[in-house]
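Write out the 3D structure for:
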Amino acid sequence: MYYGFARIACAIPEIKISDCRYNADKIIESIYRAVERGAEFIVFPELSLTSYSCGDLFFQDLLILEAYKNLERIVRFTSGLEIIVIVGLPLRFRNKLFNCGAVIHNGKIIGIVPKSCIVNNKGYNEGRWFSSGNSIAGHTDMNLLGYEFPFGKNLVFNAQMNDNVISFSIEVGSDLQMVIPPSAYHSIAGAHVIFNLSAVMEETGFHEYRKELVRLQSNKCNAIYAYTSCGVYETTTDGVFGGYAVIAENGTILRENKRFELESQIIYADVDIDKIKSEKNRNVCFLYQGFNQESSYKYIDFPVQVCNTNLPKNIYDLPKPKRPEKIVLERHIDPYPFIPADKEVKDERYSEILDIQALGLAIRMMRTGSKRAVIGISGGLDSTLAFLVTVRAFEKLELPKKDIIAVTMPGFGTTDITLNSALQLIEAFGASLRKIDIKQACLQHFKDIGHDASILDKTYENVQARERTQILMDIANKEGGLVIGTGDLSELALGWCTYNGDHMSMYAVNAGLPKTLIRSLLLWAADNIVDKSIREILYKIVETPITPELLPPDEKGKIKQKTEDIVGPYELHDFFLYHIVRYGVTPKKTVFLAKQAFKDKYTTDEIKKWLKIFYKRFYTQQFKRSCLPDGPKVGTISLSPRGGWVMPSDINFDDMDIDLMTED
């Protein structure tokens, strides 16, 4: 285990039909390669010791005894190795033959699981030779080759790795295609990883169905699903075996191989066990399934460690394979987890996001009897998106856009670039413009409260934010409209808003969207849903530095107050937000992930610096989130106090030593 990641290998070795010694040699060769690659698990196809297509040879004692004999060779080979091996073989039990997956570690058989769904159609004739694992009530103890181990379909293996535990279970082949697959119950019983040993003859169109089945099952079970099926050297009498391996994590395909290859193959994936555990903890569906885990399942605990026994000389006369001293994560960590990478997915998702926001606003206007909307337009990212959403809502309601009252309120920090962008945007959509300069009102307020206007402190800034909100609220009262909130998810996480200033509105359409997603969404909107004149305005807005414009510009009239210079890069904060809030990732692992994602952009010290600021602001600014206005949840993360994120407002952040928590 490395920062909560485990490396899984799925192997498709070359085989010879019914030649158990040759097949064991190839299995051992694959194990050797996997150990040197740093894998902690390796799974092989269905009946990989004998080959799947032995036919009536499964009735021969010679084949079964050869399978046992070569199973022992594999078991002995694993002595002293930090890898868990899962191989397929036929196993006799109480005068029945079962198609099984055997779990092996450190010179021992840990347990064996029989196949449940025995297939007897489409060229498969498994019922001629094998019995279903369903014929075994629960689980039982078994002795084979001098090894004692549990045997049965309801087994959960708890591999203890350092301070972590990985729970995994086995299903075989077509078990996955059952109406309720065994893996569904395994997952409810606590399995983080499901291994499937399979054998499939290829059919046109079946491959995509199988891939989607694996992906969806990993998603339904909140699990990792590692699947591998027999390769091309199985029989071609009535079909062709293509050899397919795939590893999916919670609905995402991490790795898959190319089918129809003549050479042995192994695919690897670094899977995030911590993420799976977090998903299971949050998914209430696992808490209400109506079956007693303790009575129906056997839990097998075993440590994953190096044994002191010397390795027997192996078939290659090679030294013991060595794991790499330093594991390098072989997994892409997306620096922008809120932004889809695939264009088709992005097109569909961004259109859906705008519909969710616009429909939420439209329904709220209908139910409040509002015919007008009041929105402050600053020429920045957030107010621009909120304005586009408001336009979309008015189109759904078939209301005239002149009833969108767009207010621009220049203050002490307003620059020409943002003001002009705001004015052009309002004009382009035909909304009603109101330009209200707030400087004199703020100066009067400074005088009233006895504040020196030359002191550019929080009071200086917040007076402007509250003055703008007051204007919007009063216009809404006068016109019978709703004040549309423009603040976003990133600002809520950091508390980067003025309490009862821009913090408040009558409906906050951006509350579920982080800053990086808003920027990306505006670029997408520019390219896909607006005309050329508006496109250029949106491009200019996206290119403008993010700023609250509450402090005076520089001597050249340019933006001087840049948000990311103060609180840090939003791309980092959104990355932190995603992993910490969505998955409960520790500070130490968050730094590790950020280093992987931004390795060429930020140093470790820079990541730690901004992470500390994130934690401090996130913990100390909960009081602002505790009284948020309504707003639509858009993605998987919401900071709404009404079920999205529940946290006391008075947590003592001083007790958290982030520097200590992020030490290697």
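The two ends are 15 Å apart (CA to CA).
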